[in-house]
Design a protein that fits this description.
Layout lengths: L4 E6 L8 H20 L3 E6 L2 H17 L8 H26 L6 E3 L3 E4 L11 E7 L1 H7 L4 E5 L2 E6 L4 E4 L2 H9 L3 E3 L6 E6 L2 E4 L6 H11 L4 E5 L5 E3 L7 E3 L4 H9 L2
Length: 261
């Protein structure tokens, strides 16, 4: 009998916001993941990268400004870097937790590219805030080719959040899952890329992690998609004084709520 598959989306609360926090958070998160593996599930993991990719983006930009011969890094490259170092901590944390329990399974991080549509409406209305707070002078310089947004204390860069279209490395992910291995993939929603002939070109964007998780779950025919969040439950009218908690809903109900906005 084939094992059941679960795709788990881990939010930034379960990953920390800097290097020391991340190492401690991963130890706790690894225990939850190991519980499912010990119970016989095949597990694929998608993680958030918002604080980390912002940190990398800021560091690369600042370094490029202050040192001749170095340049800033595009958002797609920053996303790739975040997948590498978050995956490094996650796979080692999960591996250690499994070995403690007498379980020996390979854990792999797949550097994952996700294609987006260059004509996605999201590119015209960027919403994802990244990087540090800038002064007005810095914002004017940043705005040359990029988008900035006024926030408390200054300005921050904002980028598009297009819908994921396809997972480039899906065959490799499927092969690892079929071999009953643990896979960390589509980190931060995946490295956003656009197809240009034979080439893949990085896009200045951040893909919503939960949407990439849904696409991955569909592609590997998962039995369960789980999103670990910092709130107790989904609510209607979120953020208002008319919030209604939802502890269980059917697919039909979910579609109705979506249609109602």
């Amino acid at each position: 009998m084939a094992k059941k598959r679960i795709v788990m989306a881990i939010g930034h609360k379960d990953m920390g916001t800097n290097l020391p926090e991340q190492k401690e958070a991963v130890k706790r998160t690894a225990k939850v993941i190991a519980d499912f593996i010990q119970d016989g599930w095949q597990v694929a993991i998608v993680h958030s990268n918002a604080p980390q990719v912002g940190m990398i983006h800021t560091a690369m930009n600042e370094f490029g400004k202050q040192h001749h011969g170095y340049s800033s890094a595009p958002m797609s490259v920053c996303s790739a870097m975040s997948q590498g170092y978050i995956g490094y901590d996650l796979q080692n944390g999960i591996r250690a937790e499994l070995i403690k329990r007498g379980i020996y399974k390979p854990v792999s991080t797949v550097l994952t590219q996700v294609t987006v549509d260059p004509y996605d409406e999201a590119f015209y209305t960027p919403v994802k805030v990244v990087g540090r707070v800038m002064s007005e002078e810095e914002a004017k310089e940043e705005a040359k080719g990029n988008h900035v947004k006024a926030v408390e204390g200054g300005f921050r860069r904002i980028v598009a959040s297009p819908h994921p279209v396809a997972i480039v490395e899906i065959d490799a992910i499927k092969a690892l899952m079929d071999a009953d291995q643990i896979v960390i993939a589509c980190g931060g929603g995946g490295i956003p890329v656009m197809e240009q002939g034979y080439n893949l070109r990085g896009a200045s964007a951040i893909i919503e992690k939960d949407l990439a998780t849904g696409l991955l779950a569909k592609e590997i025919d998962a039995d369960v998609m789980m999103i670990l969040t910092s709130v107790d439950n989904v609510t209607l009218n979120f953020g208002t004084d008319k919030e209604e908690p939802i502890h269980h809903m059917t697919i039909a109900e979910a579609k109705t709520y979506m249609e109602e906005g």
